[in-house]
Specification:
CATH superfamily of the largest domain: CO dehydrogenase flavoprotein, C-terminal domain
Number of strands: 12
CATH class of the largest domain: Alpha Beta
Structural class: alpha+beta
Oligomer: single chain
CATH topology of the largest domain: Enolase-like, domain 1
Strand order of the largest sheet: 5-6-9-7-8
Strand content: 15-25%
Distance between the termini: 56 Å
CATH architecture of the largest domain: 2-Layer Sandwich
Largest sheet: 5 strands, antiparallel
């Protein structure tokens, strides 16, 4: 039997079966785990959430972390701080570092990996999970299935979950990667917005536009055996194109070769097409649209540079390992 508090609008299921039944029986209800996304929206819309709230506090099935031979399974309600506490011997280092640099400790204590995946905004953790080909378990009262993370979000950043579906588990494959790098890169605002001296973009670096780059590679005998990379920061969707990755596989280091212009052109066409798809239409003034296009152009240029930097340094693993270290990640880096 479900347990109710004195407030009839809050439900506390004890297991996944109760959770799915309650979610199905209460259309428009809100799943509440850490609450960071809901509380952030609530600053602008104090009446959120308006419907029934279903808390995951007692659904222990969604709070488990299981290490298997080929992959790591994480429950959707596992806080980011718990994943960090497991350590980078179990959690892949590139994912561990990205989580450790996601907000302050208080935020990581509340925020869950499932909530992060269902959020409409992009983040470094999501970019890393895209590069790792994570799989997500989606359940309802009628079915259970796994989807690739690349298919989980629509163009506008919303999840594909229907009204009676929930995200229950994240499966992260272990790969034989010997090169990895991930970083949020802040863009120098003066380069994008000329004449903004003294504005909040300069006084508050966190308000500066940012791009996200995450990459994994396997190098053997001076050749590239496999590579995966993803970009974030252009709109709300993570960008990854397997055909570009496949074109680099098998090449001698550096894989960009003597003609990096070909790779640059492919990446620019990909990023520009995704950027144009995410440009708002009819809701922005001409001046605002001009700033958005200027910002997008600069982000695309920065993404191309950081990708070429990674490719050109694949033959220097010690340098890449040093640059991905937490000490260097915490330094401000501008492009």
């Amino acid at each position: 039997m479900p347990i109710y508090t004195k407030e009839p609008g809050v439900l506390f299921p004890r297991n996944v079966k109760e959770l799915l039944n309650q979610y199905n029986e209460n259309p428009g209800s809100v799943i509440f785990a850490g609450g960071t996304e809901i509380l952030t929206k609530g600053r602008d819309k104090p009446d959120l959430p308006a419907g029934t709230v279903i808390s995951l506090k007692y659904v222990t099935e969604l709070m488990k972390v299981v290490r298997r031979e080929r992959f790591l399974e994480i429950g959707a309600a596992v806080p980011l701080s718990k994943i960090v506490s497991i350590g980078n011997r179990v959690v892949p280092t590139v994912l561990y570092n990205s989580i450790l640099c996601s907000g302050y400790p208080g935020i990581r204590n509340l925020a869950t990996i499932g909530g992060l995946l269902c959020s409409s905004s992009a983040s470094e953790v999501l970019t890393v999970l895209h590069a790792m080909d994570a799989q997500l378990e989606v359940r309802s009262t009628l079915h259970t299935g796994w989807v690739l993370i690349s298919s989980f979000k629509k163009r506008e950043g919303k999840s594909i979950l229907s009204k009676n579906e929930i995200l229950t588990r994240i499966r992260i494959p272990y790969g034989d990667w010997n090169r990895s790098y991930s970083r949020v890169v802040r863009i120098n605002p003066v380069s994008v917005y000329p004449g903004i001296s003294g504005t909040s973009l300069q006084t508050n670096p966190e308000a500066c536009p940012a791009v996200i780059f995450s990459a994994l590679a396997r190098v053997s005998k001076d050749s590239l055996e496999d590579i995966r990379f993803a970009f974030g920061g252009l709109g709300r969707q993570i960008i990854r194109e397997r055909s570009i990755e496949i074109a680099l596989i098998g090449k001698k280091l550096p894989p960009a070769g003597r003609d990096p212009d070909i790779l640059e052109k492919q990446v620019e066409e990909l990023l520009r097409s995704r950027s144009e798809q995410g440009t708002p239409a009819g809701r922005e003034t001409p001046g605002r649209l001009g700033l958005l296009k200027s910002e997008a152009a600069y982000k695309i240029a920065a993404m191309k540079r950081i990708l070429l930097w990674f490719l050109n340094n694949l033959e220097y693993p010690d340098y890449l390992q040093q640059m991905r270290g937490l000490q260097n990640r915490q330094r401000k880096l501008y492009f």
